[in-house]
Amino acid sequence: MKNLKWLTISSWIDETIEVISKLETFEDISKIPNWIQDGSVLESKKISSAERMYSAIKARFLTYAESKVNALIHLLKSNISKDTKTSYLLIYFLEEETLAQFYLEGYVYENYLEGQSIYTKRDIEYFFNLLKSEYKDYIPREELTESSEAKVKNQLWKFLEDFGWGEKKDEKFYLRKPTLSPEWLVFILYFYFDEMTISLDSLYNNDIFKRFLISRDELMYLLLQAKQKKYIQMEEMGNIRRLIKVSGGDILEYARSITNS
Question: What count of other Cβ atoms lies within 10 Å of the Cβ of residue 36?
């Protein structure tokens, strides 16, 4: 299990899309501080605020391997819808924001499978008590002030709302997971698995999908859809069941293939 870090700042979806869409390739990242200074990006923000936003954007989305960053740049510069762009951003966001990731994997997932769609402050309090008792070795050593803890608790609902996974209303959170596409699922396969051939059994038992609230049945359904669209092949040879990526390239080549550019 990864060490968890407090989630205290906003998701800044629009600002992230604005900044990354201005990039052409991974090599352009070094230009962003100058763009902030001359107002080429985040022009409506004070420079100090823009720099703070960029620090979070860089940590969440621009510190990955070059191919993964270039794939994200390509997707955000393409003509796909904002909602679709946001769904790809969530993959990167959850990999960096480990508390948000664990909240979904370690708490929401099982409740979601049991049919829970409305979450209250009691759920948040229960999750925090769980962190401080059973997972205290994984949370930051410095204690949160009362106001900071309230901010973290608020962000656990706010980020889901920002990414289009529900709505905070009347001191409750109404979870509404969006429909996930086979294109998006196969992108996850490129993001997390370098191999062109993947054991299906290893996929079905992988906890990665819990952070996206994907059950085994939904995973199988999405894989079948991806197979029908010829993004993957699925083979069975005796006891060996495997998935083969079809694009033949890396994650950037796959991103290009699903945006027709």
Answer: 20
